[in-house]
Amino acid sequence: MKTIKVVAAVIQDGDKIFATARGYGEYKGWWEFPGGKIEEGETPQEALKREILEELDTEINVGDLIKTIEYDYPTFHLSMDCFWATVKSGKLELKEAEAARWLTKEQLYDVKWLPADIELIEDIKTGVCL
After folding, report:
1. Rounded to whole angstroms, how far apart are CA atoms 107 and 17?
2. pTM for this entry
3. Which residues contact 89 (CB under 8 A, 6 or more apart)?
4. For residue 39, what is the DSSP state?
5. Which residues are CB-neighbours of 70 under 8 A, at least 6 positions away?
6. In contact, 94 and 20? CB cutoff 8 Å
7. What is the DSSP string of 52-114?
8. Hey, is 113 helix, strand or coil?
9. Which CATH number fits domain 3-123: 3.90.79.10, 3.40.50.1370, 3.20.20.70, 3.40.50.1010?
10. In DSSP terms, which residues pair with 90 in a beta bridge?
11. In sequence order, which residues have a C-beta less than 8 Å from that of residue 45 and are 6 or more positions away?
């Protein structure tokens, strides 16, 4: 099975976490933490900064690694490094996602998460700086 290596940003602002709804593909409309594929020669942190700039026209500060999620989708294996992040500059303008929300830890289960991303919710709920 093919492995896809990606990164995701858990962007935090006070007591809220930023989430986006996919605007394309099989999981269109499902929610995820923004990010994308790591390109050859990039560190995960470099890839995350590039992806957020491309997808949301925003510069971020990448913080600590929360965890690496290993998840088997039907046609590929996903390895996703998930990092805490904050906005450095920009307005989180949606370029690829169809929707976005700032969620409090009590609202994290109010959206339909992608299967791999749901594995991160409990870690976020216990790690959110409130």
Report:
1. 10
2. 0.93
3. 58, 59
4. P
5. 77, 78, 79
6. yes
7. HHHHHSEEEEEEEEEEEEEEE-SS-EEEEEEEEEEEEEE----SS-SEEEEEEGGGGGGS-B-
8. strand
9. 3.90.79.10
10. 58
11. 7, 62, 83
DSSP secondary structure code for residue 53 in this structure: H
**For position 85, what pLDDT does the model report?**
97
Task: Look at residues 52, 50, 46, 61 and name the one whose alpha carbon lies nearest to residue 33.
Answer: 52
Helix, strand, coil percentages (3-state) for the chain, rounded to 5, are: 25, 45, 30
* Cα–Cα distance for residue pair 129/17, rounded to 1 Å: 10
Tokens found for residue 41: 């020669």
pLDDT digit string, tens, across residues 59-107:
999 999 999 999 999 999 999 999 999 999 999 999 989 999 999 989 9
The residue extents of the domains of the chain are 3-123
- Neighbouring CB atoms inside 10 A of 85's CB total 26
